[in-house]
Specification:
Helices cover 47% and strands 5% of the residues. By secondary structure, it is mainly alpha-helical.
Length: 88
C-alpha cells in the first residue's frame, strides 16, 4: 500500500454489526408501517475514493476500495454485512 488509510473489516459478531442490523430492521418496519417506499443504498462509488478521516470523530469517509478488490475482505464483507442485511 502507499501509506493511505486501509479498510479493515470488523470481526463477525462485532457490536457495530448488531446495531446496523437493528437499525435497518427498524427502518424497514417503519417504512412498512407508514406505507413508504424505501430504496436502501449500502455503498456507492465513493467507497473507492481515498479514505478521509473526519476531524474530531472516529469516522473515515471513503477508503474502502479493498473491500471490492481484495477477495478476503470482500468475502468478509459479504458474510458479515451484506448477507445479514439481505436476510432481514
Amino acid at each position: 500500500m502507499d501509506g493511505r488509510w486501509s479498510a479493515k473489516p470488523l470481526p463477525a459478531g462485532h457490536a457495530f454489526h448488531q446495531q446496523l442490523l437493528e437499525d435497518f430492521s427498524f427502518a424497514l418496519k417503519t417504512c412498512v408501517d407508514l406505507k413508504l417506499k424505501f430504496v436502501p443504498v449500502l455503498l456507492d462509488f465513493h467507497w473507492c475514493f481515498p479514505g478521509e478521516p473526519v476531524v474530531g470523530t472516529p469516522v473515515v469517509k471513503s477508503g474502502r476500495a479493498e473491500i471490492v478488490t481484495d477477495p478476503v475482505k470482500r468475502e468478509t464483507f459479504f458474510d458479515n454485512v451484506l448477507e445479514p442485511l439481505l436476510d432481514i
